[in-house]
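Ticket #4471: structure output looks truncated?

Reporter: J.K.
Steps to reproduce: submitted the chain below (275 residues) through the standard prediction queue, then opened the result file.
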Amino acid sequence: MKKHSTKLTANRQTIILKLGGSVLTEKMSGKPQLKKAVVRQLAKELKQFVKYSPQTKIILLHGAGSFGHPLVYRYKLLEQPLTTAKLLGYVETICSMRHMGNLMTSYFQSANLPVLPIQTSAVLTEKNNTMALSNLRHLWQMLNTGFIPMLGGDMGFTEKKQAVVISADKLAVMLAKAFLNSKIIFATDVDGVFEKFSPPNNAQPLSVLYSKKIKNILKKMNEQKNGYDTTGSMAGKLRALLSLRKKEVIIFNGLKQGNLTKALTGQQVGTRLIF
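Returned output as attached by the reporter:
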């Protein structure tokens, strides 16, 4: 069954669309607050693309934003030992993420998009203290039925009983490796990848970036702590992408109207990364 499903996805392009937490939420506020107008606009553009290209399969991912990162910090969930207070904080974080997913689903439903939320930890398994994809058959079945599966940043545990943040960026990379004919599109709150962070006001993002140059970009990048971000921001995203081979990735500003349409339809927008 697994080989058969892989052949199915190889004949149709699968777009792995990750909507960043800084695009969807007021990430720096520390409060679980969705940018409703932004989500509505993204849903509208996604609906237009689905009508334009119904044969393309889409897996939707979303970051945790202000619904997850502040709680991870507040309860110090990544620190040992796991006390009762931390376990309760873990539950609160999971519930907050489910709430975010339900809110987003309602907006996509209003746009007549069959977005179906999935608990991210349900398609992951922990092995040797690292997370790996499992039970992909369920995802393939959903895609082939016509659904748009939606997964988000999540929490998990290792065999050593240590809590870990499941990054949607890393999840995007794992999915891109599993689906042969696939590409990743990252909607962020910046215009693309720059030579250095933070760039001057008049700086333009790189239009194309080859994988062999990413390490140099990372060396130049003055990585800054981005508020409550627990997944590494842009530098973490680029590091996660380094393991890709024969893939295309687009990083663009999802806050600007029309940019998602450009990214989905192959028009120039943001930075195109080639692996």
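Triage note (M.O.): checked the attachment and the full token line is present. The two ends are 29 Å apart (CA to CA).
Status: closed, working as intended.
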